[in-house]
């Protein structure tokens, strides 16, 4: 499989409101597509259509130019899909659950055993192999559900909010796993309304709002198209506020806001140099690092220097009419 194409997809569940309307996008082998948008935008419907679980009212899904619907049963052997629910069986053990699905995909006992052991190691579940699913934590159950989507080594991997219930460490681990899967030639589609989960990880982005595709293309091109060149940072200082503003302006920083002190603090002249600056710094991350070095070299008391939004969040800020996290 080289690519999967959604062409002019429209679908309504009630005949009144379009869940998706005239949507066209493609995902290529070896790339990660971020499907982003607020809750209710049509992301889950798009994934179900791609998974051949939902036939659109109009339009079609093409696998290398061939209509997927007539051969949907065969194609499902090549699709890993995580939908709204995890689809776990509480009374099964973690290893038994994965082995059950491996056998459903026609793997013999030896192949299934090897694949199950590999996935349990990959998702840090090896020590829980014999535990009942009902006894696993929410994060472990989520990791097990994602592992199940990879049992048959799919050509197309579709994940709907996969990081739900995962702690920060597990989320970073998941990003590494999915990047590795894509690098092995799998087409990966990850849906999320939390943009920070997807930044610096995906190759292509598709932004959906109210069922319609608003933006589609390689992440780097989308960022360039919307001129996301000035990244917003928030800087907190306990001393040197005015000097910091001078340094930032020398770097062509666009000052968005300066938050001063409370009325009680401002009475004391010694505290008037404390505050928070929100600024847009032009260029790559190295430019922000240079600004921080200058602030510290000037002996200003910087207690925090952090980006406010990721690049995808900045893109959404340029377009968005609905809310995303």
CATH class assignment of the largest domain: Alpha Beta
Give the CATH topology of the largest domain: Rossmann fold
Count of DSSP-assigned helices: 11
Kindly report the spatial arrangement of strands forming the biggest sheet: 6-7-8-3-9-10
Strand content: 25-35%
Tell me the name of the CATH homologous superfamily of the largest domain: P-loop containing nucleotide triphosphate hydrolases
Indicate the percent of residues in helices: 25-40%
Brief descriptors of the model:
14 strands; 325 residues; Alpha-Beta Plaits; six-stranded mixed beta sheet
Could you explain the architecture of this structure?
By secondary structure, the protein is α/β, with parallel strands linked by helices. It has helices at residues 43-50, 72-75, 94-104, 109-122, 138-149, 168-183, 219-225, 241-250, 263-266, 285-297, 311-319; strands at 3-12, 18-28, 32-36, 58-63, 66-67, 79-82, 156-160, 187-192, 204-209, 212-218, 230-239, 254-259, 275-282, 301-307. It has 2 domains: 3-225, Rossmann fold, CATH 3.40.50; 230-319, Alpha-Beta Plaits (2-Layer Sandwich). The strands form 3 sheets. A 6-stranded mixed β-sheet has the order 6-7-8-3-9-10, with helices on both faces. The chain has a 4-stranded antiparallel β-sheet with strand order 2-1-4-5, with helices on one face. Helix 3 (94-104) packs across helix 4. 36% of the residues are buried. Mean pLDDT is 87; it is low at 262-267.
């Amino acid at each position: 499989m080289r690519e999967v194409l959604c062409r002019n997809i429209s679908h309504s569940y009630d005949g009144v409101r379009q869940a998706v309307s005239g949507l066209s996008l493609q995902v290529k082998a070896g790339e990660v597509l971020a499907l982003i948008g607020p809750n209710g935008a049509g992301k889950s419907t798009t994934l179900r259509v791609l998974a051949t679980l939902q036939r659109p009212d109009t339009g079609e899904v093409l696998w290398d130019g061939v209509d997927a619907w007539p051969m949907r049963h065969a194609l499902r052997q090549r699709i890993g899909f995580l939908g709204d629910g995890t689809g776990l069986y509480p009374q099964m053990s973690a290893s038994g659950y994965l082995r059950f699905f491996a056998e459903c995909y026609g793997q013999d006992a030896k192949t299934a055993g090897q694949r199950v052991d590999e996935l349990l190691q990959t998702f840090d579940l090896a020590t829980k192999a014999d535990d009942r699913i009902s006894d696993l934590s929410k994060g472990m159950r989520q990791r097990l559900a994602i592992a199940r989507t990879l049992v048959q080594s799919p050509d197309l991997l579709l994940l709907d909010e996969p990081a739900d219930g995962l702690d920060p460490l597990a989320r970073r681990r998941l990003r590494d796993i999915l990047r590795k899967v894509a690098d092995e030639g799998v087409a990966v589609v990850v849906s999320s309304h939390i943009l920070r989960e997807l930044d610096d990880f995906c190759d292509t982005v598709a932004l959906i709002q109210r069922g319609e595709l608003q933006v589609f293309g390689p992440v780097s091109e989308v960022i360039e198209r919307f001129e996301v060149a000035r990244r917003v940072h928030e800087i907190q200082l306990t001393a040197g506020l005015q000097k910091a503003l001078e340094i930032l302006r020398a770097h062509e920083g666009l000052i968005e806001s300066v938050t001063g002190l409370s009325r009680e603090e401002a009475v004391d002249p010694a505290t008037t140099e404390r505050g928070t600056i929100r600024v847009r710094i032009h260029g790559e991350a190295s430019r922000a690092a240079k600004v921080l070095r200058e602030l510290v070299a000037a002996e200003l008391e910087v207690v925090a220097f952090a980006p406010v939004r990721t690049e995808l969040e900045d893109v959404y800020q340029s377009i968005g009419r609905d809310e995303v996290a």
